[in-house]
């Protein structure tokens, strides 16, 4: 589970990240990363729509993504907002596939995100 300080909660933060953040897509996920001020801890939010599957499947995908993001975000530098959007293909993906897609998209999007001056 992500600690409270690393959770993105408000729709304004979600909207700002998806609109102005660096976007990187893979087969199972789309990752949006926006650089914020460096004094704030990095935060993550998740979007898993009904197109992914039934409630059991969506919750499984969310749990897997939370675990992956939690392992990454706590060791990364502060000052990033991250939104992870699960695509319908993630319903059939196993943990290793999700991990590969997440890590690849995260590295690319984080390198593209501009650090504010």
TrEMBL record:
InterPro entries: Ribosomal_Su5_D2-typ_SF, Ribsml_uS5_D2-typ_fold_subgr, RNase_P, RNase_P_CS
GO molecular function ontology, one term from the record: 3'-tRNA processing endoribonuclease activity
Keywords: Endonuclease, Hydrolase, Nuclease, RNA-binding, tRNA processing
Region annotation (Disordered) ranges: 1-23
PROSITE patterns the record matches: RIBONUCLEASE_P (PS00648)
Family: Belongs to the RnpA family.
HAMAP family tied to this protein: RNase_P
Function per UniProt: RNaseP catalyzes the removal of the 5'-leader sequence from pre-tRNA to produce the mature 5'-terminus. It can also cleave other RNA substrates such as 4.5S RNA. The protein component plays an auxiliary but essential role in vivo by binding to the 5'-leader sequence and broadening the substrate specificity of the ribozyme.
Assembly with partners or alone: Consists of a catalytic RNA component (M1 or rnpB) and a protein subunit.
Name of the molecule in the record: Ribonuclease P protein component
């Amino acid at each position: 589970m992500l600690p409270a300080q690393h959770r993105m909660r408000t729709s304004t933060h979600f909207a700002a990240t998806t609109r102005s953040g660096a976007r990187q897509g893979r087969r199972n996920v789309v990752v949006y990363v926006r650089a914020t001020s460096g004094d704030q801890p990095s935060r993550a939010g998740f979007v898993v729509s009904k197109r992914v599957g039934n409630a059991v499947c969506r919750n499984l995908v969310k749990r897997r993504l939370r675990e992956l993001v939690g392992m990454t975000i706590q060791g990364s530098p502060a000052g990033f907002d991250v939104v992870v959007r699960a695509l319908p293909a993630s319903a059939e993906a196993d943990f290793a596939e999700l991990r590969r897609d997440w890590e690849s998209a995260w590295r690319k999007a984080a390198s593209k995100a501009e650090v504010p001056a």
